Amino acid sequence: MYRYDEFDRRFVDERVAEFRDQVERRLTGALNEAEFKPLRLMNGLYLQLHAYMLRVAIPYGTLNGRQMRMLAHIAETWDKGYGHFTTRQNIQYNWPKLKDVPDILEALATVEMHAIQTSGNCIRNITSDPFAGVAPEEIEDPRITAELLRQWSSLHPEFTYLGRKFKFAVTGSEHDRAAIKVHDIGIQIVRGEAGEVGYRVLVGGGMGRTPMIAKELRAFLPKADLLPYVEAILRVYNLHGRRDNKYKARIKILVHETGIDAFRDQVEREFATMDRAAVTAPEGEMERIAAYFAPPELTEKPSAPVAFERMKTLDPDFAQWVERNTSAHRVPGYVAATISLKPIGGVPGDATAEQMRAMADLAESYSVDEMRITHEQNVVLPHVALGDLYKVYRGLAAIGLEAPNKGLVTDIIACPGLDYCALATARSIPVAQAISKRFASNKRQREIGPLSIKISGCINACGHHHIGHIGILGLDKAGVENYQITLGGESTEDAALGQRLGPGFGYDELPDVIEKIVDIYLDLRQGRRETFLQTYRRVGMEPFKEALYATAD
Amino acid sequence: MAKEFKPSVVTANDLIEGDSVFLGALGWVRDIAEARVALSRDEAEVLEADGVAGEDANIVVGPYLIEVSVATGRPVPVLRRERIRVSGVPTIPFGVAAPAERRAA
Amino acid sequence: MPRLIDRLGPAEDIWTVLGAEDPLPSSGSVIVALERLDEALAAGLELGVHLPNDTDPERVKPHFDRLSLISVDFPSFTDGRGFSIGHCLRALGYEGRLRATGPVISDQFDFLLACGFDEVLLPDSVAERQPPEHWAAAEGRITLGYQRGLAGRGSILDARRTAGDG
Known about the structure:
The structure holds 3 protein chains of 3 kinds. Chain A is α+β, with helices and mostly antiparallel strands. Chain A has helices at about 5-30, 35-40, 65-80, 100-110, 140-155, 225-240, 250-260, 260-275, 275-280, 285-290, 305-315, 315-325, 355-365, 390-400, 430-440, 440-450, 510-525, 530-540, 540-550, and strands at about 45, 50-55, 60-65, 80-85, 90-95, 125-130, 170, 185-190, 195-205, 215-220, 325-330, 335-340, 350, 370-375, 380-385, 415, 455, 470-475, 480-485, 500, 505. Chain A has 4 domains: about 5-110, Alpha-Beta Complex (Sulfite Reductase Hemoprotein, domain 2); about 135-290, 2-Layer Sandwich (Sulfite Reductase Hemoprotein, domain 1); about 305-400, Sulfite Reductase Hemoprotein, domain 2, CATH 3.90.480.20; about 415-550, 2-Layer Sandwich (Sulfite Reductase Hemoprotein, domain 1), CATH 3.30.413. Chain A is about 35% helix and about 15% strand. In chain A, strands 16, 17, 18, 19, 20 and 21 form a 6-stranded mixed β-sheet that branches. In chain A, a hairpin with a 4-residue loop joins β1 and β2 (about 50-55). Chain A starts with 5 loop residues before the first helix and ends with a helix. The relative contact order of chain A is 0.09. By secondary structure, chain C is an alpha/beta fold. Chain C has a single domain, classed as TIM Barrel, CATH 3.20.20.70. The N and C termini of chain C lie far apart (about 45 Å).
């Protein structure tokens, strides 16, 4: 993984010193709150319902054991002993005090981490595929490109006071695990006609109150042109994006209102006339970064070691976990193992300091000291030998993180909602917990098969409800929490926005409603292989609507 | 039609600590029981202005009025959001308490 | 409180901003609104122009050789269009003085310089709280940035090559 050189280190140290000075000037009043707010946001610091909240960047979701231990240390020293992993592959702390934040940032810098641009109207943490460097079908590790973009976007003088936040995602595989179609800019690594590696560039996707699927801006961009090309896009957006209404300020609205073809003309004109050579990464920079992402030297191992097969027979729970929570690795004898942060009835994405340290131990012992945070709010151990898998499993069971539910109905994404968030209109976490408890049985979850439930506590859609197979949006209706259901959303290469089922439901009704939707699916599916999404796409909304609202007529 | 006036208190977040505070008789307090309650529109206006003065003095952030019920003596916010905020914690067991609860269950 | 600040600290403002109805003076340095540029060009004064931040930078390109100063409006410090306008004016070849006018804050000083600005003209409300020391402290606080091709700041990407060669 990427390691800081002297320049990266000085940059982050200087940034910490700058924020310490900003906090001091805030306390003396030299900066008023209106001035300080964007500055603290660009250092990851929000003011939430109960307290400040600090969001720490985990660039493209990759971290090592030492970094995870520091996250645990911060949780215990300056917070309440836990953290929350987010859909942008970051972690947030819910209880820091303003006076402590410079110390927290300083501690992070010692392990080559920061909170730069995890909030604010600037280019946010670049997200990527949690199986980068592991997935067998990948063209190139997307983290190389993501790291180049991370550096380019950090404190970009021209693009740090944008009209609204700006999110990039990069995938190196055709199968999209980074949800690039719902990002401001989505980048897919592709091969050109001569087999050369380059980029397909999408623009204008996003969720929030006006969800949109991204459109193709360039089918093929030569690799060397990446920085000037994104600079051209950002310049057009910065100059022409709407500033009159914050709900219409994202690039998706500009692209939508301008039209993708006219928008493309503007970008291409800027790209053609700008001094591209001045902006392009110098020769060797991409290779320098790439060297950090060289695949670890793993020795090929048997693909079905005897002890491993025996443990699967002896411990059926382990066998279930292996079946559900491990993914193919390009080196025979290895898998990527997903640690579900969705224990039954738990808070999706939360981990205690103790759990963080245990995960760090497991990564150091069994996964080449590497972990990934996924946008589904889980953790991946990317390089585990099959022969070590039982030890990993037992280690996870000891901290209550052995749920064999990756991709199943209880692997729920939820935003913090009204329990923590100042913007929320309804609670999300207790809804997720109630649904999780309702479907607690492993047997039943496996019977249902792949099904993603995503819950947002307000229209801003941090819980990604638009792209959940079942999406739940919590609103406030005259002081009462009311939840709208959408069906048929999807985040991958065939991304789709969920369609609204009908009038919303009350807080207490939700587990029953979700169960009913699942039962209808089970009833309608053509064989056990047809997934919820496939069934929905085949039968449409009507049968669900009928069953849920018929009695009300 | 003007909305009916309800008793109100001013709340904000402490600038340094970040937690919820309320404007009391002698300054900002942590316990809503010690908050000054405005019983008329005029009183609410004065209270709100005092809240803004607290922000201008770099003591608190984002002061605003919330409606409360004073039926029990202790002010209780009308809105769910504000009741959760006044409680100071999420409505569910959280952090280190969360897994413990599940193990016990 | 000094309202005009550049790299060297507080500066004296020699420019007169001409109101919409004010008659053109016969001599001196004046800043006019974009709408009065043609009229002022004919008068042969030392000339500056004030641009709202939705101006197409190409609009003033024909007059670059006649303009000693371009002032770009920052209606609020969070409205970052001016950064791109500054960058574009420099990219188009403008070599005169470039001023950011509005309630920008000292924490943006480096960004402004990197986008080609030379100076900031602050309203009193900001100047009172942000004395010249704050601007001096802000300048160069982040020694090197990651971006290339910027006027006012060195690039880590280039420094790495130099360090590697050395």
